[in-house]
């Protein structure tokens, strides 16, 4: 199991993911300004929840790419077990 | 209920929150590089889960500040209801 | 801070909560049968997610009752701090 | 994609899952008694969070079984796509 290389993301998937991540980066910067300007806490918290939801979406799309790519190939070559275990471990991180 | 002003964060709380948010911003940029460099999906996902956990912490510390400040004052002046409803609504966003 | 007694739930709130909990109990029993009958995993998982959502709803409605009752009274009598800390701790359990 | 039949759980896995589900069922009944006896809300909420964590564990162990079984076989026979999509959809339910 090679851990450092990965499937290339298809160009359009990669671009979509990067766009989302740049937007999330901007939202995190926006929250910093809200905190500095003593904006209403509930508005800050609503923004944080929006970022969490956006990160979930990015996470799910990377998870899907990974399952269609690495996981599928590992299973096809009869070496699915470690990759499935690893997949379960990372899903656990998102669930708890 | 005034929605745009807020309690000032105490200076040290504000600084701690801002430090965490700057770190989170850096982590989000880090993930962009990981995606561009086709790093292993599981490593990217692990980083995303770390950011989620960091955002939860920031969220909880703002929630606490808000409850000790706005919510407490509203209750003391006999006007707790709308503030409590609003608090529940934002907690709901974090739970689901 | 008295930890063992609590505000009575208003009768209709209590009945609603109990109805939901009985339904959840039935759903948990239903999942046992699905497992025994080797039902399709995805269908079992979908049911488990439905129970989680139902428990979130019950949790939120108890949290609301608690904040309107115990928390509000503690704040009004100038003893809000330990009750707020405790509230934050339990919210943390639901968020992570 | 056959949706109603499933891999049999290995006997010991099935028994472990059923034991957990029976324990969860008992916990849900326990919460009903706590509500009826007007027990302290925070204690009820702590119990609800414990049930959620227990359901997450059961869910993850069924997810693992499913991925090692159905998903693996579908991929090996060149028909992984619908099963992977379905897997992602159910993971989504647990994450949000």
From TrEMBL, chains A, B, C, D:
Which superkingdom, per the lineage?
A: Bacteria
Q: Which GO terms describe its molecular function?
A: DNA binding; metal ion binding
Q: Which Pfam families match?
A: Trns_repr_metal
Q: Which GO terms describe its biological process?
A: negative regulation of DNA-templated transcription
InterPro entries recorded: Metal_Tscrpt_repr (IPR003735), Metal_Tscrpt_repr_sf (IPR038390)
Stated name of the protein: Transcriptional regulator
Q: What is the lineage of its organism?
A: Bacteria, Bacillati, Bacillota, Bacilli, Bacillales
């Amino acid at each position: 199991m090679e851990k450092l290389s990965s499937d290339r993301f298809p160009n359009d998937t990669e671009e979509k993911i990067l766009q989302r991540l740049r937007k999330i980066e901007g939202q995190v910067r926006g929250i910093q300004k809200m905190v500095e300007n003593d904006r209403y806490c509930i508005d800050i918290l609503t923004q944080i929840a929006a970022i969490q939801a956006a990160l979930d979406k990015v996470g799910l799309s990377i998870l899907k790419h990974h399952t269609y790519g690495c996981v599928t190939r590992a299973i096809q070559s009869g070496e699915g077990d470690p990759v499935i275990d690893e997949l379960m471990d990372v899903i656990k991180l998102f669930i708890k």
